[in-house]
Specification:
It comes from Sporotomaculum syntrophicum. This is Low-affinity inorganic phosphate transporter 1. One of its GO terms (biological process) is phosphate ion transmembrane transport. It holds the Pfam family PHO4. With 332 residues, this protein is mostly helical. It has one domain. The longest helix has 41 residues. The protein is elongated and about 70 Å long.
């Protein structure tokens, strides 16, 4: 069998593994608020999230095309299959490390940092599509600030309208609404995060000479959607605990506000074809909502640890992927 075919097969398996890990790593963020406020039981929340992730993953392809073609050109990149393989290994390694320690790090940053690091090591800075890469980084940086601001505004409006409301029926009503916002949240997550693996697989297919356009084959969409849904069904309890309770003490109203905020920001980015970090967006939305209640209600120590993880992910994964490529190059 052609070695390139074997390598493509390995890359596809690794990409689906990344998607599976992403499912229990990042989807934990999507359902953490509804579990924390007791709007949903953990079992029901995971079933709902798995289903809606699957639906969301099959709905859009713009982000996949961005990942597949804007960081580097798969049609001309030398050793493109090896580049993708080491990038996936690096991203998976970092996801597992941060998951083990319960840190809501970004799978998006890990994947994009790893791919960029592998490309630079393989082809130099000229191998990176600078305009496309900067465009992606801008979206990754801007989206948390947007989520914080929108969360602050939405929570401020809700507090104004419900300031004299009876707490018990108000909480009951927002818990009911959180069932729908949790579904919306999981759907938006699927529309953005699952597409990143679709883009990586398409990149590999082109580099291996098995595909000629950036259009995403249906089998790629379906397999990535299923892998993420299966990963979601496993759950990520360490990260649920961090996001659901260690940033602020969530109430049904604040949980509703953060869900609506993050889902809207993520879905808007998807519609624009921009990959964003669902982890960053969800955590920033919770911080914005908490700040609207009281600046001191936000546990800024936990937030600082998250930001630190966010900042180091790109450079660390770039370095790991570059190092892995150098090792792989010995055998090429």
């Amino acid at each position: 069998m052609d070695p390139a075919i074997i390598l493509v097969f390995i890359v596809v398996l690794m990409a689906l593994s990344f998607d599976f890990i992403n499912g229990f790593h990042d989807t934990a963020n999507a359902i953490a608020t509804s579990i924390s406020t007791k709007a949903l039981t953990p079992r029901i929340a995971i079933i709902l999230a798995s289903t809606m992730n699957l639906v969301g993953a099959l709905t859009f392809t713009g982000v996949a095309k961005t990942i597949g073609g804007q960081i580097a050109d798969p049609f001309v990149l030398e050793n493109g299959l090896v580049v993708v393989l080491v990038a996936l290994i690096s991203a998976i390694f970092w996801n597992l490390v941060t998951w083990y320690y319960g840190i809501p790090s970004s799978s998006s940053h890990a994947l994009i940092g790893s791919l960029a690091g592998a490309v630079v090591t393989a082809a130099g800075l000229s191998g990176v599509n600078l305009a496309g890469f900067v465009n992606i980084i801008e979206a990754l940086i801007l989206s948390p600030f947007v989520a914080f601001a929108v969360g602050y505004v939405i929570m401020s409006v809700l507090r104004f309208f419900f300031k004299n409301a009876n707490p018990q029926p108000t909480n009951r009503g927002f818990r009911l609404l959180q069932i729908f916002t949790a579904a919306f949240q999981a759907f938006s997550h699927g529309t953005n995060d699952a597409q990143k693996s679709m883009g990586i697989i398409t990149f590999a297919l082109i580099a291996g000479g098995l595909h000629t356009t950036l259009d995403i084959p249906f089998w790629v969409k379906l397999s990535c959607a299923i892998a993420m849904a299966l990963g979601t069904s496993v759950g990520g309890w360490r990260i649920i605990k961090t996001v659901g309770g260690k940033i602020i003490k969530l109430q049904p109203m604040s949980g509703f506000a953060s869900d609506v905020t993050s889902a809207t920001v993520i879905l808007t980015a998807t519609a624009l074809g921009q990959p964003v970090s669902t982890t960053h967006v969800i955590s920033s939305a919770i911080m914005g909502v908490g700040s609207a209640k009281s600046f001191y209600s936000v546990k800024w120590g936990t937030a600082q640890k998250m930001v630190t993880a966010w900042l180091i992910t790109l450079p660390i994964t770039s370095f790991i992927a570059g190092l892995l490529y150098l090792v792989a190059a010995i055998f090429i």
